[in-house]
Every structure is written in structure tokens, then in C-alpha cells.
Amino acid sequence: MSVNANSKVFIILSGNTFGVEAAQAIAGALKKKNTIKIVNASDIFTSRLREEIPSAVKAICDALEDKEQLEELNFSDNAFGPAGAEPMVDFLTKNRRLRVLKLNNNGLGVRGGILIGKALLAAADKNVSEGRTSSLRTIIAGRNRLEDGSSQALANAIAAHGTLTEVRIPQNGIRPDGIITLSKGLAVCKDLEILDLQDNTFTEKGSVNFAKALVEWPNLKVLNVGDCLLSTKGGITFAEALSLGHNKKLEKLNLQYNELDREAVEILATTISNHLKNLNSLELNGNKVNPKDISIRNVISALEENGNADALGELDDMEISDEEEEEELDEEETEPSVKGLEDRKVLIESKVESRIEIQKPEKHLIEVKSVQESETREIHKEDQETPSANSERQVKELTERISKDKVTESSINAEQKVVKPLTPAKLEEFKKAQENTGIIYLSCVPPFMKPSKIKHLLGQYGNIGRVYLAPEDPKARSRRKKYGGNKKKKYTEGWVEFLDKKVAKLIAKTLNAQPIGGNKRNYYHDDLWNIKYLAKFKWNNLTEQIAYEKAARTQRLQAEISQARRENKEYVKKVEKAKMIQSMEEKKEKKRKAAEVEMANLETFTEADVIEKKRKKIKQKSAEDGDNKKD
């Protein structure tokens, strides 16, 4: 490394793989440079043994301890776990000039998180003892399984370094208790500008405490709490905290998949209009609000008023209740409202004209037409006579007549339907089309992605026939819902049929292991496709396989039920036998006790009693003999 002594040095090691000896050699070169500003050591231990990594990390960190101009250290995407965190402790404690620390996707776990938190806290304590202000501005520690166990250590470190402006700790499995602890630490950082807590679990308990901290960040520009399960009540509390107007600089807000309802969204719309004038990116997808709801329209209007009409992201995965879906269908099927008698006449006349256009009308169709015309004349006549008094009655009669017309028309259409016979040519054409189809297999479906979304994403590359996604185990879903996880249905694998096998092959070849991409704000932007083309595999093979698995499962279930019945029958039999044996034993015991009592009574008789008893027997016998002689 031949570098000018006064120049700022940027060390980029990312994308390589270093063993212990190579790391020590690099560390030797780093020790000689005092102007190092940034060290990017992300993804440098691929395929290395776990035992090698701690020594390599320590060599690099020891070389950087005394670098006063060092501003950023990036060890992201190195799966070294807690063992890799320990060698960093001395560096984090001694080098107090560091401004940016990036430890994303390192698998630190609870123990690693505690080690990092305590090291940063020790550095902050040294700053206080020396009367220095902390230089640390950014902490990034996402995807590390930090969980609740490390939240206290991290919260203490964050609070001690109250100068932080950016904190990103998404996807760490932190639950409500951990969120409460972290919120207290984050509340101390008054200059916070960027906060990312995506894919942790808040629930109402965590949301309430987080809302209290939210008002402490007047400079906040980016807030990502997407997929955090704020809950319905928690979402309202969160929205109310925003409505207080303490976060007027907010530019990006992610609230995806948080079970927000229309009340929370309505509060948010008012807040955007009154306080969030700079908001240019808003994510609300996956919440419990109909995209056509007035609250969503109010949000769009508020954004448009602020000059950010394109700020709202996609709303293609909103959780709509069954009742709302039925209402939407009813609205689509319902005729437009008729206002005034003239409009009602025009509506009937248009229905009459539509019936005239039916090819070759039958006799009863002509009768329907004539009835419609007579009804039109009657209504027109009634309108002239009593234009206001009978309007309600006329609307009711009109509704009944139109419903009758619909029934008549549907019966006419049913009579006109012709079932075409299946010809050999048509059958051959169908078989040929089936032979030309291609099936791709999705070994892993992105979390909570629906079949409609799969069809939408892959449909842009070719015509899709059928899509089947295998749902997750119901027990796993119920367990996830029980402990506050996402309630949406997940799918484990899937099959997609393309009408052209060439397209299917090309898609499998080009998209496999590639990111889904699309809009950067898309929930699935960073997920990877896992696609394989199934050669000589047709849709009927899939249905046969499913049918076979279902039959096998049914057979196994019947066998288990039969076995259970046999076991139950044998158990009942043994229970009855045990009862019978017990009854016999009780009877024997009863007889034995009776015999013992009798023997005891005999032993108490005196000799005189025995003689008296014999005398009575002799006397009784002689009396009986005397009676016999008389006879």
C-alpha cells in the first residue's frame, strides 16, 4: 500500500475471502497507515472455518485501534456469530473516534448483541470521564437474531451515545418487551434522523411505549416500522402520536403489514395534511383497510395537497374482510341509482332496446318487450298525474319489475345456450395445447405472497395457465398467530403452468436465484426467485400426485383410526376384566370376613350353652316324633 501520507485511505476488502495469515498480513499493512477513514470488510470470510474467523477479526481490529481518523467500520454479511463479536470488544472500547458501525447480517445472537452493547457502553463511559462528546452517529445491526435478551445492553449503549442520528436494527426477532426497552434508550437520542425497526414484533404493548418515544425525535426523516404488527389499537396510538406534530421533517414512513384499520389511517390522513408536508414516501400495503375506503382517499388527497401525489406505494395486498368483499361484489352487480322519474323511464327504455337486439326473439321475448313498453307508458302516465306523492311506490314497483325482467332474461339466455359437441379435431387441438405447456417449480415462496401476486409477477413474461401454491402447516400458522406473529397465510412451494414451454424454460433459466426486483418500495424487492423447470411434467401429473398423496394420507389416517379403535377395544376389555376380577375378590373377602365373624361367635359359646342347645334340639326332635305317632 503506497499511499500519500496526507491522503484519506479507503480500505475495501469486500467480496474476497481471507484466512488467518492473510488477515494478519493485511493488519500489518494497516498499522502503518494513520489516515484510514473507511474500512469495508463485509463478506470476507466465505467458505472459511469457524475457528479461523475470530483470529482474523482480531488481527484487523487490533490494527485499527489507534486510528484516530477512522470514521466507518463495516463487518456486515460475515456469519461469524458471537465468536466474531468478542474480538471486536477491545476495538470498540478503545477507538472512540468511530462514527459509523455496520454489523448487518452477522448472526450475532443474544450473546453477541450483549458483547457489542457492553463494549459501546464502556466507550461512552470513558468519554464521560474524559469530558468528551461521543463521535458515534450510526449503528446498523439488522438480521442478527438479537431478540429480547440483548435489548437491555443495546438500549443502554444507545442511550449512552445520545448523539446517534441513524439506527437500523431490522429483522431481529425482538418482541414487545424488547421494543419497550429499546424505545427508552432511543428516546434519549434527540437528533435521531433515521430509524429502522422493520420485521420485529410490537403489538399494542410495544406500540404504546414506542409512541411515547416518537415525540422525542423532531429531526426524524425516515421511519420504518413495516411488518411490526403494531396491532389495531397500537396503530391508533401510533397515529395519534404522529398527529401531535413533533415529527414535521418526516420524509419516508413505512407502515406495511401492521393491522392498521381505517381509524388509524384516517388520523394519519389528517396528520399528513396538517404536519407531514415533506412526506414523499408512504407504505400502507397489507393493512386492514379497503383500498377504496374513504380514509385511503383522504390520505391520497392530503399527499396531493402537499405536492407528493406519487408518495403512496402499492395497495395490492390489503386485508379486506369477507363482509367488505361481499359488499364490493354487490356494488358491482347492483344497477346504478335512478334519480327522478325521467331517469327511471330512460333506464326501462334502455332495457327494452337491449332485448330487441337479441337474435331471433321467441314469442315470450316479444311479450316481455310489450310488457316493458306498457310499463313505461304507465309510469309516464302516473308521473304526469302525481309526480311526487307516488314516487316511493313507483320506485318500489320499478325495482320489482326490473328484478322480474332479470329472471326472464336469464331464462332466455339459458335457452339460447348451445352445447357444441366435442369433435376429434377439437380434442386433438386441446391435446396439442396441453403438450405445449411448461411447468415451473417454486421451491420456496416468498413470505405471505399470494397466488394472485405470483401470477401478476410472472405473467409479464408469458401467458400463464394455472397456479398452485402449497399452504403451510395449519399448526405452524396457528402457533404463529397465537404468539403475536403475522396472521397472513404462508405458502411453502408452488407450481406455475405456462402456455408455452419455451417461455417456461427461459424463465427458469434467467430468473432463478435472481431478485424479484421491481419498485424499490415493493415488499418483495429483495427476495430471490427459486425456480426450476420440470421437464416432461404436465399439470395432470401434479393433480395425480396430489390425489395420490391425499389417498395415501386418507389410507394412513384410516389405518391409524383402526389401530386406535383396536387399542381402545382391548383397553375396554381389560378394564371390564379387571372390574370382574375385583368384584370376585371383593366377594371372596366378604365371605372370608363372614366366616371369621361366625368362628368368633362360636368361640364365645360356653359349655353350658352347648349343652342347652343340644337339649333344645333333642326336645324338639322328641316333640316331632310324638306328633308322628299320633298321626
What's the total number of strands? 14
Low-pLDDT windows of residues: 328-391, 406-415
Shape: extended
What number of domains?
Answer: 4
C-alpha Rg, in Å?
Answer: 41 Å
Into which percent range does the helicity of residues fall?
Answer: 40-55%
CATH topology of the largest domain: Leucine-rich repeat, LRR (right-handed beta-alpha superhelix)
Helix/strand structural class:
alpha/beta
N→C terminal distance: 149 Å
Number of helices: 21
CATH superfamily caption of the largest domain: Ribonuclease Inhibitor
What is the CATH architecture annotation of the largest domain?
Alpha-Beta Horseshoe
Order of neighbouring strands in the sheet with most strands: 1-2-3-4-5-6-7-8-9-10
GO cellular component, one term: nucleolus
Keywords: Coiled coil, Nucleus, RNA-binding
Pfam families: LRR_6
Coiled coil: 243-270, 554-601
